[in-house]
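call fold(seq) -> tokens
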Amino acid sequence: METAPAYLYSSGFSPGSIILVAGIGLLFAVHFFMAEYNTIMPKREEANYKAPAIDHEDPSYKPWYPYNLVYMIQLMLLTFGIIIIVPSILALLPGVPPLFSPFPQVSPTSPLAASVPAYPPWFLLFIYKELDFQFAQSLGPFWSTVLFAGMPLVYLLALPYMDKGPTLKMTERPITVSFAILGTIYLASLSLWGALAPGVSIANWRVAVFFFVPGAVVILLTWVVASAMRNERIRIKDAQWVFVTMAILGVSAFGSGMLILADFKSPSFLYTVSLILTLMVTAISATVVIALARGIFPQKVDSFKPMSKGAYTLAGSGFTASAIFILFEISIINPVNVFNTSLYAIGLGVILLIGSALIRMYRAMFYRE
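ret:
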């Protein structure tokens, strides 16, 4: 009986991993189907900004097959393409921090274990950093985790009982909106803090500054902006973009500061590039907030103007030829080492992205979506 080549197992490919990937794909399919089957909330303007916003079946809705099925396939190809490409690129970069490295870390019994920080899963980084707070260390890991992980949960459970207003307009709910912005800033900033400064104790006064200064600024700014929108001193059709950009601005500003310190203490090409990108995001976000506040951006245009069928055909032919060329190139790659395996995976991911783009053009050409 034939067995799989040894390099497949050494590269991380095994029957178990293949089954795991297949299971993830099945979960994606079930998730997309359930999302379509149960529908989602209607747009706030369709509900006249009144709660509860309940969706009702409408003859204009497109059926699951073929319209939404094609759309779900497009999203699936896009998602898996990104999932494959990102770790493959990280595998080729030198000096990637352990948190973002796609390779398994050293064993706890290894002599190198002392030089590698023990990171939790990325989605628990905010709790990981909160345990470094001075007062949290006096509470102990268990009660600190209960406190920090429980507060957001308690707030979300209590929110329907606290926010009983009939309106869905964000400009008339400044407190709820400001808490949402703060939650985003705190969650992302603490995660970044935990990634860049793991295991570093934080004095209580620094903790107070971290929580209270952004809190006061965001609540005050949200209240002022929401009031200006209600009084039409600021006229914006999609008010949520102002608040979303405020959250991005807060996270990128904190990230820029952390990366400046990290790059100063331990100069690294990765830190420098990340710092430049983060500063760019901060500058762009600040510019967008100012532009939105001054009404510089034009109102949203709902009309969709597709290209001609000839243009779509030409573009699709180019994408298809590129995918065939990439497929031919990666088919001759023997993934016996990290470099070859990463190149193979990047090529495969790009093919999936091209497939997603082709489906998007198909939908635009035939369904006018």
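The longest helix spans residues 338-367.
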